[in-house]
Specification:
Layout: E1 5-10, E2 19-20, E3 50-51, E4 53-55, E5 62-65, E6 69-73, H1 74-83, E7 88-95, E8 102-107, E9 110-111, E10 121-124, E11 138-142, E12 156-159, E13 162-169, H2 170-178, E14 184-188
Parallel strand pairs: 3-7, 9-12
Antiparallel strand pairs: 1-13, 1-14, 2-4, 5-6, 6-8, 7-8, 10-11, 12-13
Length: 206
């Protein structure tokens, strides 16, 4: 049976939910490199990290801070530790007014598996775009589909060339749903039949 995989995102349409802000260092300054938590490799944060609540509301077990950085409650972290210990790095963070432990969920694998032929549309950065460091990577991916034969044993990963996408296995999806984890949203990225839509996310511009 073919393995199934899902893009994991923050459910931004939940009514009354909180919104998290830009991660801060121990001196209260914005982190200089927040992108390190969403590029598919181990991060090396320097010291204590605090995440402010930008808009007050109902706390979520899974939500995104600025730059779409995944932030999870300890019980979510325990599920990832149990089911995908080799695929994630859990970085402790303090969230204003929250006594419970939270973590940045950093996927440490980056897998080259986007199936261009079955995606709705893909576009690549070209030399004419004036961003030489991005040439050869994706500038846009709509209706993303992946080739599961290229995933190997990974259960959590970022997609090579389009690391805005955080992918989880069906096993993890079902575990999160059984546990009643709040804030998660899933989109199937396995096989043909992509749902037409806009690009998954606007890529980093600098």
């Amino acid at each position: 049976m073919q393995k199934r995989f899902f893009k994991l995102t923050d459910d931004v349409y939940l009514s009354g939910r909180w919104e998290l802000g830009h991660p801060l260092d121990q001196e209260g300054r914005k982190l200089e490199d927040p992108w390190q938590f969403r590029i598919g490799q181990r991060a090396h944060p320097d010291g204590h990290i605090r995440i402010p609540i930008k808009i007050s509301g109902t706390p979520l077990d899974y939500s995104h801070a600025a730059f779409s950085i995944p932030v999870v409650h300890a019980r979510v972290a325990s599920l990832f530790t149990e089911l995908a210990p080799d695929d994630v790095q859990l970085i402790p963070v303090e969230i204003d007014s929250q006594p419970a432990q939270h973590f940045i969920l950093n996927a440490t694998r980056r897998v080259k598996c986007i199936d261009d032929a079955t995606c709705e549309e893909v576009r690549y950065w070209t030399p004419e775009d004036g961003m030489p460091e991005k040439v050869g990577t994706y500038s846009s991916v709509s209706g993303m589909r992946i080739d599961t034969a290229k995933v190997g044993e990974a259960k959590v990963f970022r997609t090579w060339g389009w690391t805005v996408a955080l992918i989880v296995s069906e096993e993890l999806k079902e575990a999160l749903e059984r546990a009643g984890i709040s804030g998660v949203k899933f989109k199937d990225v396995t096989g043909p039949g992509a749902t037409p839509g806009l690009p998954d996310e606007t890529p980093r511009s600098t």
